[in-house]
Design a protein that fits this description.
This protein is an alpha/beta fold. It is built from 5 helices and 6 strands.
């Protein structure tokens, strides 16, 4: 079984341990990802964007000690995805990419639709979606909203982690 991650790039609080909002989100994500693994999910697809994508990747990589059979597959829209990010964000991204089981780069350079195509590519390979958003208020004009709607149209089950920025 397979699962793709989607969620917002921006979190309304600092991403550091000791911040109660961040700690709560981490615990919730770890619980949901662990439950998916226990239900038989072995392969996870991640778009590697800052925010929820990278947080899910870090949690999954941390769970590999307990569940060595799980795999993380990075879906990179184009090689320069992180070129304009702050140095710390680029370093985090690079470190995560090196720990992924596979890295697939969809396009040789930026295209207007590359992020949407990357999200659809992940959903097409996943038997379900883990969406970090409030299911009652799915953001319409966002990558997360578009990914959730695409997964729904494909008939993929969605596990919602209720979160609203």
């Amino acid at each position: 079984m397979t699962c793709a991650f989607t969620g917002p790039r921006q979190l309304p609080f600092p991403q550091r341990l000791g911040n109660p909002d961040f700690d709560d989100l981490c615990l919730l994500l770890q619980k949901e990802i662990t439950l998916l693994i226990e239900q038989g999910v072995t392969d996870f697809y991640c778009g590697m964007a800052p925010g929820c994508d990278q947080l899910c990747a870090e949690i999954l990589l941390g769970l590999k000690r307990e569940f060595p059979g799980i795999r993380l597959h990075a879906a990179v829209p184009f090689p320069g995805q992180a070129i304009r990010w702050a140095p710390a964000q680029r370093a985090r991204y690079s470190g995560l990419l090196h720990r992924c089981d596979t890295v697939t780069c969809l396009y040789e350079s930026y295209r207007e639709d590359c992020y949407l195509a990357r999200n659809r590519w992940m959903v097409d390979r996943a038997s379900q979606l883990l969406a970090i958003c409030d299911p009652a208020r799915i953001p319409w004009r966002s990558g997360t909203g578009a990914t959730v709607r695409y997964a729904q149209a494909q008939g993929n089950p969605i596990v919602f982690v209720p979160y609203s920025p």
